[in-house]
Design brief:
This protein is α+β, with helices and mostly antiparallel strands and 500 residues long. The protein has three domains: 218 residues, Carboxypeptidase-like, regulatory domain (Immunoglobulin-like), CATH 2.60.40.1120; 43 residues, no CATH class; 167 residues, no CATH class. It contains twelve helices and 18 strands. A four-stranded antiparallel β-sheet has the order 3-2-5-6. Helix 1 runs parallel beside helix 2.
């Protein structure tokens, strides 16, 4: 049996305003006046993901001038796992009503039913409608509408128009023609894509419904008071959203999992991924990605982001991504050699050097960021085993041929960084130093080869075998040697070639 958890904080924003008994002059000012509702059937769809069968739906009567609840209500339950409901015989003293749904919902990320119950609201004008959907956007706008009406004297119509514009702008979306109470996550024509994007952004891959509840409550309070989503959760969500698009170690990305789950519930799933991308790229200050600026590279300019100053590329698909995860089909072919499209990731590192092995959270987060942005950093010995099946380390000659392709060392340094080609990442190098182990990030890149050289270490009168590597910096692209006298314990990137 599921543990019942009612997160009343989700409705507390509504209670803050709707339950007020203050005599407010604003109310319906500027509207058509107070109009009673007689014997109506009110229907709609309740969606977080879809609320489950048996979830309760309540229509609260509101005073047409003060918007305070009168105490009269009509109740029903959700009829199916698609979240649909209907209430017959609804008669109200005014056209304004507060709809509340409470229950379990289908979790888009896990694909399962939620462990706890949540509450969502919608504030509606029923003069010209008998259909009202209840979802995250209606929930977020409701508190703002009441604040504008009760505390700033706006008419309901003006308050709703302002609240919708503020809501969409805060998520970096363009306000469409579909009102939140008409949106349906399974319908592209009814604003399903932005609604589903907001649902995923609020939910994320929370380990508990309580975390989701708290995130949503904070966002709702912020919208109600400021007309914008403020606070640290916003940037944390942006960073999460960027990572949610990335499939690591050949597994599905979070957004791919969400789509797979949704498609198992309904045949039609709108392109919500576009709006998730718009949200985080807008937070990073990247601007628009379109046919005009395909392959343009821009830095994340938001200092509050974990990925501040990291570089992102505008893809032909119209979305921004980390350069390492740019749109690419197959290997990069150069001088008769097929190079893998990205660096080997941290999943090939020995466990004791993986980010998960660090107890210090700051170090772990720093390592995780470098893993995502640049891939893993490998010692010479680790590099020999790093390439996945079907690939191998390049030889020195193959790396040199890559340089020769551009005619000169200077030309190769520029050409090899092109995002529509090899896309070399200026990852710098890693040492075993205490503290931040990453050096010369943004300044140089090193890629191991399988070719070794043997040299005499005169200090110890012994011969040492070390690997050559491809080095790229502002001076050019060259083949260097990992002479331990001037390269002590430096770990570089690995880019593999296909082993035919």
């Amino acid at each position: 049996m599921k543990k019942m958890m009612k997160f009343i904080c989700l409705s507390s924003v509504m209670m803050l305003f709707a339950c007020s008994d203050v005599d407010v002059a604003g109310g319906a000012s500027g509207d058509a006046g107070v109009v009673a509702i007689k014997d109506r059937e009110i229907a709609g769809v309740t969606q977080k993901g879809p609320f489950l069968t048996g979830s309760s739906v309540t229509i609260q009567e509101l005073n047409g001038e003060t918007f305070a609840q009168t105490g009269k209500s009509f109740m029903t339950v959700v009829k199916s796992n698609q979240g649909d409901f209907s209430v017959k015989g609804v008669s109200l003293v005014s056209q304004y009503a507060l709809l509340e749904v409470e229950g379990y919902y289908r979790n888009e990320v896990t694909g399962k039913s939620s462990d706890g119950m949540v509450i969502l609201n919608a504030l509606a004008d029923l003069r010209t409608r008998n259909h009202v959907n209840v979802n995250l956007l209606t929930h977020l706008e409701s508190g703002r509408i009441l604040n504008l009406v009760q505390n700033q004297g706006l008419s309901f119509t003006a308050a709703k128009k302002q609240a919708e514009l503020e809501l969409f702008t805060s998520f970096g979306f363009t306000k469409g023609s579909t009102a939140p109470e008409d949106m349906d996550v399974f319908s592209e024509d009814k604003g399903g894509a932005p609604l589903l994007a907001v649902s995923v952004l609020m939910l994320q891959d929370s380990s508990s419904d309580a975390e989701f509840s708290e995130r949503l409550a904070l966002a709702a309070f912020s919208f109600a008071e400021n007309g914008a989503w403020l606070g640290t959760d916003r940037m944390k969500t942006a960073d999460w959203a960027m990572r949610s698009e990335i499939a690591i170690d050949s597994n599905l990305s979070v957004l791919q999992k969400v789509r797979k789950n949704l498609e198992s519930w309904n045949e039609t799933v709108p392109p919500f991924e576009i709006y998730v991308n718009r949200f985080w790229s807008n937070e990073y200050g990247l601007g628009v990605c379109s046919d005009v600026n395909v392959h343009e590279v821009r830095r994340n300019l938001n200092e509050n982001s974990r990925y501040y100053l990291d570089e992102f590329v505008c893809n032909p698909s119209g979305r921004w991504s980390l350069i390492a995860y740019r749109d690419v089909e197959g290997d990069f072919n150069a001088a008769g050699v097929s190079w893998a499209p990205r660096n080997v990731g941290c999943e090939k590192l020995p466990w004791w050097r993986s980010p998960e092995s660090w107890n210090d959270e700051e170090v772990r987060l720093s390592n995780e960021r470098h893993c995502l942005v640049y891939g893993g950093y490998f010692s010479e010995e680790e590099a020999e085993e790093a390439c996945p099946e079907g690939y191998r380390l390049p030889t020195r000659d193959e790396a040199q041929a890559l340089i020769d392709l551009y005619g000169s060392a200077e030309g190769a340094a520029v050409g090899l960084q092109s995002v529509d080609g090899f896309a070399a990442l200026m990852a710098g190098y890693e040492t075993l130093a205490i503290g931040d182990p990453f050096f010369e990030t943004y300044q140089m890149a090193g890629f191991w080869t399988s070719t070794t050289n043997t040299w005499l270490d005169s200090a110890f009168n012994v011969y040492v075998t070390s690997h050559y590597y491809l080095k790229i910096d502002s001076n050019g692209a060259t083949i260097d040697s990992s002479n331990v006298k001037n390269r002590p314990n430096w770990n570089y990137s690995v880019r593999c070639v296909r082993d035919f």
